[in-house]
Write a structure and sequence with these properties.
Layout (H helix, E strand, L loop, with lengths): L13 H10 L5 E2 L2 E5 L24 E6 L19 E4 L2 E5 H13 L1 H7 L7
Antiparallel strand pairs: 1-4, 2-3, 4-5
Helix pairs in contact: 2-3
Length: about 120
């Protein structure tokens, strides 16, 4: 599916998250987040290669959704705990979840006013 990123040990320490945010001059690069649904028929609107539509297995369902800047896990039966979560990419590797970045750098990412009100990423993806 699209570009594959090298596996890496997840680094969710606040100091490392701050380093990644500073290196990107306040911009975080996020890997695509593909979500399968066993109860839907993929309609090919995502323009995935045909080999990628059932990349996670037919029992998991076809990939029907792409989530952006997600801090919400997908509630799919048999899903890994991080399914649906966006990952931050740094130096070609997935280094931590966007959810971890928001927890560590919330006011810098969304602004103090929104952070004080919601204490989380206030977008449902």
């Amino acid at each position: 599916m699209a570009k594959k990123f090298a596996a890496s040990k997840i680094k969710n320490e606040p100091a490392f998250i701050a380093k990644v945010l500073e290196a990107g001059e306040g911009i975080l690069r996020l890997a695509p987040t593909w979500v399968p649904r066993s109860f839907l028929t993929p309609g090919r609107r995502l323009k995935l290669h045909p080999d990628d539509i059932y990349a996670l297995g037919a029992e998991r369902g076809g990939i029907d959704e792409r989530w952006f800047a997600s801090t919400t896990p997908a509630a799919n039966e048999g899903a890994p705990p991080d399914e649906g979560l966006s990952y931050v990419v740094f130096e070609g590797k997935r280094v931590h979840t966007f959810k971890d970045a928001v927890a560590a750098e919330g006011p810098r990412l969304i602004g103090k006013k929104l952070w004080d009100r919601y204490q989380r990423w206030p977008v449902y993806s």
